[in-house]
Amino acid sequence: MPATEELEVDLLLEGVFQRYGFDFRAYDRPGLKRRLLALMEERDLATVSLLQDRVLHDGAAAAALLRALSVQPAHLFDDPEQVRQTREVLGACLRASALPKVWLAECAHAEEAWSLAILLAEQQMDHRTEIFATVANEELLAEAREASIPMERMEQYQENYLKSGGTANLADYFEVRGKRAVLLPALRSRITWAQYNLVTDASFNEFQLILCRRALADFGPVLRQRTLRLFHDSLALFGVLGIDRELAPGDTLASSYRPVLAHQPWYKRVA
Questions:
Q1: Where are the beta strands (DSSP E) in 136-173?
Q2: Is 205 in contact with 234 (CB distance < 8 Å)?
Q3: Where does the CheR-type methyltransferase domain lie (predicted)?
Q4: CA geometry: angle 207, 130, 114, nearest 5 deg
Q5: C-beta neighbour count of 118 within 10 angstroms
Q6: Half-sphere exposure of 60 toward its Cβ, with a 13 Å CA cutoff?
Q7: What are phi and psi of 99, to 5 degrees?
Q8: At what angle do helices 2-20 and 29-42 cross, to 10 degrees?
Q9: For residue 165, what pLDDT is reported?
């Protein structure tokens, strides 16, 4: 019954919060339920209550749930149009800052951070820009720090890179380790990885650029507004915010921003 299933979902999310400290209670409910049902089908579980029992008593099941509800992984230059916009914003808005800081909030795996590091290198800003890449749980954090790319993917990544406006050989930004590739140490050193929860944690630094292009779509209305307030508190005056969709008049502090690119969700904080 729908009402019973809604109650089961509420109890599951409350249990995850109480047991593990991860709060998904204010996430967009239809999207969250789709991911839960996919996980249940994968594990051959008939009800949400059975999933709850596994999650609360089995660390592996809990890890699978956290992964299912986390932002889905991004790949190197996998959205060429978005990368083109980022190139334009970096050149126009960060160059004037002496030591710019960039926050990749709820970073969608190491390859998203690596893409940004390469863009900064091409703008000759990598040596003075620090990227703070945050993820919600320890398992994703460990994966990001130890990430590498299978060599067979590099050809497709090179195509994506060229479509995004790149003009170099993407492989020049990587070192080869057997059959895998890793971003050059000099570029990796500009990325600081940390565990951070957008739902519960407070502002931790001031940034000239904040990017959150994937996670906000998973948030319900109240949590989205809370996160926009958090970003405002973390963004320097005249800093730039890149999010998933254009701000609406009713969004938190929307009047404090001016568009950077026409009809695109890039904004400069002006108040």
A1: 149-150
A2: yes
A3: 1-241
A4: 115
A5: 24
A6: 1
A7: -135, 75
A8: 90
A9: 94
Crossing angle of helices 59-69 and 48-57, rounded to 10°: 120
From 172, 178, 147, select the one nearest 158 (Cα to Cα).
172
Give the other-Cβ count within 10 Å of 16's Cβ: 21
Q: Which residues contact 74 (CB under 8 A, 6 or more apart)?
A: 108, 109, 111, 112, 115, 214
- By percentage, how much of the chain surpasses pLDDT 70? 100
Diameter of the chain by CA atoms?
Answer: 59
Q: For residue 180, what is the enclosing H or E element?
A: strand 180-183
What's the average model confidence in pLDDT over 28-41? 96
The domains located in the chain, with CATH, are 2-69 (no CATH), 80-269 (3.40.50.150)
How far is C-alpha 123 from the chain's CA centre? 22
d(CA 84, CA 211): 14
User: Is the Cβ–Cβ distance between 69 and 35 less than 8 Å?
Assistant: yes
The token duo for 118 is 């390469």
- Count of C-beta atoms within a 10 Å radius of residue 127: 9
